[in-house]
């Protein structure tokens, strides 16, 4: 009980730009983790040269997530008043991030003549939506 109150006061003492940067960092790590989990949840789809060719996707996911979430206004929402609209924005933003990453990935893999499973995009979108929603609670 004491630790929870202390941690909450410690976060409240941070200035607004520091809290924004902290939230963006958490979202970048969440998106990168969602990419890695997508690899592990679909092990047959990511064997051999595909994973070694897509290492950079972990970095791109973090940058894309922070950019889209920022444009969607997710960092301006006061979480005390967050409702269904906020979580709808999180889900739609996750779908947009997934679309951007899928377009970049499919374009790159077409260039190097490798295949990529389409089902992994849905897995990534679900993991990113859940991760981004839970990180705000």
Strand content: under 5%
**Which descriptor suits the 3D outline?**
elongated
Number of strands: 0
Residues in helix, %? over 70%
Element order: H for helix, E for strand: HHHHHH
Summary, kept brief:
This protein is mainly alpha-helical and 137 residues long. It has helices spanning 2-12, 16-41, 49-53, 57-71, 84-111, 119-135. It is built from six helices and no strands.
Q: Care to describe what's here?
A:
- The structure is a single chain.
- With 137 residues, the chain is mainly alpha-helical.
- It has helices at residues 2-12, 16-41, 49-53, 57-71, 84-111, 119-135.
- Helix 2 packs antiparallel against helix 6 (119-135).
- 21% of the residues are buried.
- The model has no long low-confidence stretch (mean pLDDT 82).
Output the keywords:
mainly alpha; 6 helices; elongated; 137 residues
How would the blueprint of this fold be written?
Blueprint: H1 2-12, H2 16-41, H3 49-53, H4 57-71, H5 84-111, H6 119-135
Helix pairs in contact: 2-4, 2-6, 4-5, 5-6
């Amino acid at each position: 009980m004491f630790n929870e109150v202390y941690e909450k006061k410690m976060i409240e003492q941070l200035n607004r730009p520091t809290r924004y940067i902290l939230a963006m960092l958490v979202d970048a790590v969440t998106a990168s983790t969602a990419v890695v989990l997508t690899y592990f949840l679909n092990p047959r789809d990511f064997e051999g040269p595909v994973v070694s060719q897509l290492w950079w996707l972990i970095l791109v996911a973090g940058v894309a997530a922070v950019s889209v979430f920022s444009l969607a206004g997710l960092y301006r929402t006061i979480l005390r008043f967050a409702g269904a609209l906020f979580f709808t924005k999180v889900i739609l933003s996750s779908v947009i991030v997934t679309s951007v990453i899928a377009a970049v990935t499919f374009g790159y893999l077409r260039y190097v003549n490798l295949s990529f499973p389409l089902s992994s995009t849905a897995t990534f979108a679900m993991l990113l939506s859940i991760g981004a929603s839970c990180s705000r609670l």
